[in-house]
């Protein structure tokens, strides 16, 4: 799996290039589709997202770090029901917080990940593979990003967190090292 490695402040992660990302820190990827370079090209062709298809959705590594390991996911929406981007689907409970879980696609909820019932920590240990959350047959809502757009958003988000945590009293943050981004072809995330 081709990834882009990201390092900034006290956070580092690898982000697959064959995913699209949302500003709310979810990844989306066509289910059962192409892998490797073909999947990366499809993900980068954002116009292709207008065609309804089955998508898997999961938390990004940044989201799992903020939430902590998943303890439980409770969906109030059942497979077969129509869903819309921004709609509340239920809740997720991690070691650090309980959060609402929102939909990032328009379509029909197809499935939830049955593996999470037995092993909820998959969202933390394998967030871009076996740790997917739910699947929707439809299309992504506007505002999704490719891997480089997501990394730019993540850099700004971490900078804001750092500024609020380490401000010098005048609202100015102490200097932090710049973000580091590296493409790593064939690297397993």
Question: What features would you describe in this structure?
Answer:
The protein is an alpha+beta fold. It has five helices and twelve strands. Strand 1 and strand 2 form a beta hairpin. The longest helix has 19 residues, at 147-165. It is globular and about 45 Å long. Mean pLDDT is 83; it is low at 173-177.
Shape: globular
Strand order of the largest sheet: 3-4-5-11-10-7
Percent of sequence in beta strands: 25-35%
> Which H/E pattern describes the elements?
EEEEHEHEEEEEHHEHE
Q: Assign the CATH architecture.
A: Beta Barrel
Q: Whole-Å distance between the termini?
A: 7 Å
| Mean model confidence by pLDDT | 83
CATH superfamily: RNA polymerase II/Efflux pump adaptor protein, barrel-sandwich hybrid domain
State the CATH class: Mainly Beta
> Care to count the β-strands?
12
Regions with pLDDT < 50 over 5+ consecutive residues?
173-177
- What would you call the structural class? alpha+beta
CATH level 3 topology: OB fold (Dihydrolipoamide Acetyltransferase, E2P)
Number of distinct helices:
5
Described by strand count, sense and barrel closure, the largest sheet is: 6 strands, antiparallel
The helix content, as a percent range, equals 10-25%
Number of domains: 1
Supply Rg. Answer: 17 Å
